[in-house]
Amino acid sequence: MNDMARQDTPALVLDKVTKEYSQWQRSGETKDIIRNLLRPEKRVVTALDQVSLVINSGEFVAYAGANGAGKSTTIKILSGILTPTKGGVTVLGLNPLKDRIPLMHRVGVLFGQRTELWWDHPVITSFQWKKDVWNIPDQVYEKNLQMVTELLDLPDILKTFARELSLGQRMRADIAMLLLHGPELIFLDEPTLGLDVLAKQQMIGFLKKLNKEYGTTVVVTSHDMDDLEEMAQRVVFINKGKIAFDGDFDSLRSVMGGFYRILVTTQPGVPALSLPEMKLLHSENDVHEYEFDRTKVPIHEVLGNLSNYSQILDLEIKKAPIEDVVASLYLSWKEN
């Protein structure tokens, strides 16, 4: 496939995909043993319900949702690991089930920090093993090895045994191994989980650069919404097996209202001010944090109200943390 055809072909398409599981039900009571054997009950669980989704080549998309919402099921279907009960799926124009081998040469998948590194061998040995098993051409391997070594800062760990790596080092090595065959599309499950602040910044910076400079399509899942907001341009939320939201992070905030936070620093000993249309969240050391909905009270009106108080020393306005927005969203879904 030439480069123009690849650009015109969506990275992935889900067309009304449903995935159902059957679960045998057993009470666990001794008195029900015979009934469980002779007349077992079966319950059908719908993990995905008529899911339709298109992600275009070159996008960086966050795929989010609560535990059990259907995220992992979706990725496994796109990877050819699971078969959908109903609906159509294409990835890079291919069928993940029928074309799994050629597709895997164009896709990279990292699930739940499961490593493919050989535990009792140096990192470079695992890389060379993948080159041989995957039949990666010398030129492609050397080019990609040089890229990941430079961008992921690997020189000091290539000759280190995998079992001796820190979590951050191992994640960098796993991502590097994932990219050795030059995938056009990568799926990442919780790539920043457990990383310290510096390692997390390095990982996010690398993924953004990989997407922007190399055009790699990235689909990432995480429970850390701050990380997702920093990485991705688009966020897709799945709830109870259905797409509940698809858009950018500003649009996500507007779903729950235009909530903003304002930090008001007052002179020592001045109590929190009673301000119209503003909710006091907490006060500490003469700094008082309020929340307001700018769709109900414009920022200029908030500032106008605050200008009447001479006890104010400083102000800082910021968007509500995305974690709080998502928590409110989850709560609203749970109540419906």
Automatic annotation (TrEMBL):
Stored Pfam families: ABC_tran
Lineage: superkingdom: Bacteria
Species, as recorded: Lacrimispora algidixylanolytica
Protein name: ABC transporter ATP-binding protein
Segments forming domain ABC transporter: 28-265
GO molecular function: ATP binding; ATP hydrolysis activity
Entry keyword rRNA-binding: no
Matches recorded under InterPro entries: AAA+_ATPase, ABC_transporter-like_ATP-bd, ABC_transporter-like_CS, ABC_transporter_ATP-binding, P-loop_NTPase
Record SUPFAM superfamilies: P-loop containing nucleoside triphosphate hydrolases (SSF52540)
Record's keyword terms, sorted: ATP-binding, Nucleotide-binding, Transport
